[in-house]
Amino acid sequence: MRFASVPAGFAIGTLCLFCFSGCMPNLPNLQLNTATRYPFIVESQLVTQQVMFQAGQVALDQGEEDRVDSFLTKFLRGGGGILEIKLVATLNDAEGEARLQALRQYIVDHGTQSHEIRVSRIPGGNGGGDPIILSYTKYTVEPIQCDRRNAPTANNPTNFPHPDLGCSMRANIAAMVVNPADLERPQAEQPSDATRRGRVIKNYRAGEATEATRGEGESASSIRALGQSN
Hints:
Layout: H1 5-21, H2 29-32, H3 34-37, E1 42-51, H4 62-77, E2 83-89, H5 94-109, E3 117-123, E4 132-141, H6 167-176, H7 194-205
Parallel strand pairs: 2-3
Antiparallel strand pairs: 1-4, 2-4
């Protein structure tokens, strides 16, 4: 009995196809990583402002308070970070030191946390009328454009993912993040507050509101103030 040559050739061809399929290039991990395909591009810019005091005064006048308030609003809305207070003054400048401390207390009273403030003293100046400089680093993230949603994918022999895969998620994060600096390096965790934790547990066991509802003494003007009353 003789076997037909066509089925044998077909079997050999099929076997070769399976062998060569193992030599097809694998999909690089780089192509599957949405963080690499749609990176967060964060830029930084130093924002500064001089704070002036009236001659012989260690407290801010109304006009300077308004300027400092505007500066602090931008700092807090940008997600905070480190606010530097820099004093350029002569050695043993008692008036400059008093102004520095008064300004620092003013900043704390208006919503900035103590751990966010860094004070530095630089020798120099003329004494008496030297300004104090406020500064912080402002971070911005470039918007991510998702413009490949309609890319053709009918011919996809390597089974690559759609070029727009993950773009919307990354674009939404870039648009919503409060402090873009967190996209580069998360902020250090602050020490826990044992007093607050104990109060929350006590209220929970007593069936009272922990902090889900705002108390009478709390204000909605700043989220940092929530839970610090009562």
